[in-house]
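Holo model, heme C. Inputs:
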Amino acid sequence: MKKLTLAIAATVMMTSPVFAGDAAAGKAKAGMCAACHGAAGISAIPMYPNLAGQKEAYLAKQLKDFKSGARKDPVMAPMAMALNDEDVANIAAYYASLK
Ligand code: HEC
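Output:
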């Protein structure tokens, strides 16, 4: 399962060009994040961080670090694996745009 996820992530990364963040597209992709980070980027759970209003570049870096393994978390890392570079940019733009 982990290998499959990695293979899919690698394939997606190689085939998608990098775009500047599109918050509307990011919102559409952020549905699965809401379970832990809250529908408006404010988490209801003590150990799950708020994302609303966070710096865009920081969010993008954290997601890339979870993907690369530079930042480790057993809960969050698999979530980042499912995102390609375009998703990362869009989702970062979306959460940064929230108040
Ligand atoms: C199952 C729960 C869960 C889901 C779903 C989830 N996350 Fe997370 N996320 C976490 C946890 C827990 C952390 C804190 C990790 C740590 O302690 O390092 C985290 C951390 C983060 C961080 C770093 C925040 C910071 O302040 O450094 C970002 C960015 C993030 N998540 C984005 C996302 C995005 C985008 C999605 C959807 C694609 C998502 N998460 C889905 C649980 C989740």
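The pocket of heme C is lined by residues 30, 32-33, 35-37, 47-49, 51, 59, 62-63, 73, 75-76, 79, 83, 91 (CB under 6 Å). The chain has one domain: 2-97.
Archived with the compound record.
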